[in-house]
């Protein structure tokens, strides 16, 4: 075991290095665009230069003269296929299904050539004429349409309410009423988006980085009008996703159609710039938060209104009021979400989709309220710690928020914080210390897995889940090793292929819970078969009670201490391999849940959907330093303490939470996709101008894993945490900036020009 | 005329073997060639513009100081520029006897890899650093990794891995150290003194044999695109699809890669990279060292040349303003003829420089500021590291014995269509007592000197305000002893 992994505490697994670490440091990990395909042709997208209108003319003559040009696919060429269905698909906009332009950067053609260079050259020679209309870019531009969020999406049924907010707010002796906003952000995984489509007869294989092989298989076959069993989606490694590779974009079907028409495989790697308009993004949001409280700090009224930008045709709802309305003991709650439709591409899931912007607004408001009450901000949260969530009155399956604050405060040295604003200085540096709560629902979905155990102690796990960097391959292997009592080095794990047993989309931090529960179920079936075999009459452990048996060190162990090697146990069954296929469904799942899993429409449970509210929590404490002269903002240290049920692997868990907090720092101080309000166009469409943190922007990051046991959440006892770490960070930074300067920044990102006085 | 023999192929070492490429386009990048032609896909593409570092490889070249390996961005490095070099990709950093390289071991143990896509680039950058400095400071590590982005944001873990590399192995047993002598021998053999000419018509590249040969080539083809480090021209190709043929590669020309000081003037050959210039410049003019550390990332500094930064005439190039403030001159050469002009006169208008067809920038001469003068340069960008300048101001002040301004030279980038002197501001200040009153009175003159643009990096108003405040800052620094006002993470932490 390496000296550099955090030591496991109670209810935590071994901090083993990730399975794929060796492949990754040697360049041997194969991402979809790395997969060799014979006779490959190359596709390059041509995208719209206007945001609203229709395509009048596409001039392609010059492109066709480029040596190596093979074909051009445009409006009309998708005839015979169905347009995408928003949901599994990123948008209902089928760009080549009509001549309508819905947003800047929309695909208007795909050019295919013998080489990448030729395709690029040909694509650059395509020109278009448009019947252009004046676009709306988003908030504060003319021509937008506002519709209610409630009921607009299956994920957002209604605005949550509790009690009589108006009366309670009116009566509250201390209150605030403030507005907050968060900008458009793009995921910008370092791996470029790509699609490779290869037909063999009527069998289609898609190589594409995805978080949802099963869902894509189903949706793509629907679009193409072919049997889902003829489509296979392969995505062995994914170079960062963060939600961007969850929904399938229109490109996938276009490349598939091109490959079919040309009779050869086509690979289309999207340029970094084109990705801004052809993939999804985090919608910009605005918030109004009202909090009323008694002088002692008890909140009596919480109101949260949100406005979110989306595309013209699609009702993508961020909808974080589901969580903010349940976070504290509010007394009364009123929430409302509105969608603002503009001439933009459809937004989508981005790391902690609902919580990141909404909890930012809530936690910033909580900090303001603590100031209004002259209370320590952590104490203010302690006072409002609920025993039951306020909306449905349900208990929490487990809630360790205060334990997280306690551990984080101690590690951070919160007691050294001087409460007065602007009171902490170090030379030319103003010091601020701030805090915020992190919260993320524990989602879980049905999942299937196949596990094989061999007489020699080797095991093999197959599951159509996705290794997007989280470490799911490793923890699924750990689960199998643990349940089957074999060494982890003897376990292999296959993922990222729709030919494997189906898993839900790797989103909403459900994978560890869902996959581990399925793997556990398959392993337990293997155990039962072995236990039965070895305890039968005349068998090596005859008479031993199955309930007391276990597997360990390559042996079956009876409660009375008798053991038999796996090899001998298998011999009693006259086999060398036991295989089990398990279909896990979470408690409360509908009778159709499994069918929906296979159809790529997994039904989620957990969160606030069950008898108890299932959330993971964390506390983040941050120190900022702001230079008195230049107002440059630095974050020398951040401490986060998180509790998320059973921690399968402290090393991968720490890594996810650390990465999340650094994401949060980037979100707090740097990230913003600028939109030109005149033409609804993204401006900073590259890593040169879309700023994300570099090494030197990050100081000391401390992650504390707080022990928590929650048998209620799921059989594995696991809460997801990949999307927990970045929730709260921007608010904690805003809190610290206020503490240092007395300036309250309510609009992200916080830049030094906000701090000039 | 040059009498160099002519060769029609590019030759270099790729990892363990020598390769010869006959069919190479002038704008073919190393990354596309590796991934598409050679099917070596361990090197990744993330941005195609030298920002993310996923494509980082090492390029070894023979220099006056021996064989030197540097990290570079394969995505904007042209294949034609690699003649006579040793290209080392992640595939070469493979286990010897089953054992991983120390960099790789450290990255695994400290969990420096999540999705893994940026990882080969980080490994190569850390490898390049470790070869030069086995026990680097945090600041050195951060500098070496400025040009590598990790979007899973494993920075803290990567830093810990970087600090620990030497715990996992010693440099002497490193594969590149072991094969060093053999590589030097092979690279020496590749140096045949020939001019390389590949292709024809719209797809033609030339690698001149030496500087005289370069002058001859350029006289014959005055419209050729001169490519030194390709950190800018690379983007013309990958982002703007520009036709750059014919291309003349000059990054290898020893005659342009000399930097030396004589009689208080530092002469920098046009092919000297930021990295090569760093030691002397930072030692003699420390403010320039600080500035260089904020230009691009390490890979860009390893490739990009100061001559290229000047010659392409960008209004936001970082080196012209401080050089202009220091009174630098520029030598241009055409054939055997040379002329030397004040640097500021080189920049005529946006995209237009005082360079005749067939002429090239040979060297820039930068006077070291006198002991009794004061020099400062300030770069303003949204992100401190690896970001493009919004505005940059350079100030060079000499006071008379009576405390009046004997001479002040002020130059800005990002404030006009070219790097530009603040002549009106200088005129107001000159001869006046160096006081706050004088400085405040001079601020109005900025309106005569500059009418900046609004773009996504800064608004016109912001640029104007910042430009004026930089003069105030310079004044404040001259009042507070000799230390510049600096903001660094290490001071903050």
From TrEMBL, chain A:
Provide this UniProt record's keywords sorted from A to Z.
Answer: Molybdenum, Oxidoreductase
Q: Which GO terms describe its molecular function?
A: iron ion binding; oxidoreductase activity
**Which residues are in the Aldehyde oxidase/xanthine dehydrogenase a/b hammerhead domain?**
26-134
Is Oxidoreductase set as a keyword in this record? yes
Specify one Pfam family. Answer: MoCoBD_2
Q: Where are the transmembrane segments?
A: none
Q: What is the protein name stated in its UniProt record?
A: Xanthine dehydrogenase
- Which organism's genome codes for this protein? Pseudaminobacter soli
TrEMBL record, chain B:
Q: Spell out the InterPro entries in the cross-references.
A: 2Fe-2S-bd, 2Fe-2S-bd_dom_sf, 2Fe-2S_ferredoxin-like_sf, 2Fe-2S_ferredoxin-type, 2Fe2S_fd_BS, Ald_Oxase/xanthine_DH-like, Beta-grasp_dom_sf, CO_DH_flav_C
Protein name as annotated = Xanthine dehydrogenase small subunit
Q: Does the keyword Metal-binding apply?
A: yes
Single GO MF descriptor: 2 iron, 2 sulfur cluster binding
Any Pfam family matching the protein: CO_deh_flav_C
**What are the UniProt keywords, alphabetically?**
FAD, Flavoprotein, Iron, Metal-binding, Oxidoreductase
Native organism is Pseudaminobacter soli (ex Li et al. 2025)
Keyword Flavoprotein in record: yes
What Gene3D superfamilies does the entry give?
3.10.20.30, 3.30.465.10, [2Fe-2S]-binding domain, CO dehydrogenase flavoprotein, C-terminal domain, Uridine Diphospho-n-acetylenolpyruvylglucosamine Reductase, domain 2
Query: In what residue span(s) does the FAD-binding PCMH-type domain sit?
Result: 198-371
**Annotated SUPFAM superfamilies:** 2Fe-2S ferredoxin-like, CO dehydrogenase flavoprotein C-terminal domain-like, CO dehydrogenase ISP C-domain like, FAD-binding/transporter-associated domain-like
Residues in 2Fe-2S ferredoxin-type domain copies: 8-93
